[in-house]
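Dear colleagues,

As part of the handover before I leave the project, I'm documenting each prediction I ran so the next person doesn't have to rerun anything. This entry is a single chain, and its sequence is reproduced below.
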Amino acid sequence: MTANAVNNLLPSETYTLEIVESEYVPTCDGLGMVLKCKAQVVSGPYEGRPYWLNYCLEHQSDERMEAGQRAFAGLRRATGVLSPNFSTDLHFKPFDVRVWTCVNKKTGDLQNVIRQYLFDRELTPARCARNRRKAYERLRKVKALIEARAS
């Protein structure tokens, strides 16, 4: 993994995002359709940083389609747009997510994933402190993994 790829990762914590672009396209294998969304962080030190979301909404594999539908339901609930007619209905609606850094099982590279869509925008100070502690612990583990791979 290159240093540039590591620098493009967001630290594991809670972010407010909003979708700025979207398109509905066939999957790479041609067996379904995926909603590709470009989102961006809207506040904090990473404001303006892009984040890409892909939701496999139709597919011959029921497992892939179910996972995509479940994640898309989380996005709809987090944005408050429960029944969008078009993907543009989701644009510029802020929503909160918990982002984690993990290892991609296929490539072995580090990547950011949305661990959770947050529906309650009011986080208590105790929950925020706990989330920061957990994010710090996870960041330490990721840094140790990066250092181990570099040596």
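Residues 3-150 form one domain. Strands lie at 13-26, 32-41, 50-59, 95-103, 110-118.

All the best with the project,
I.
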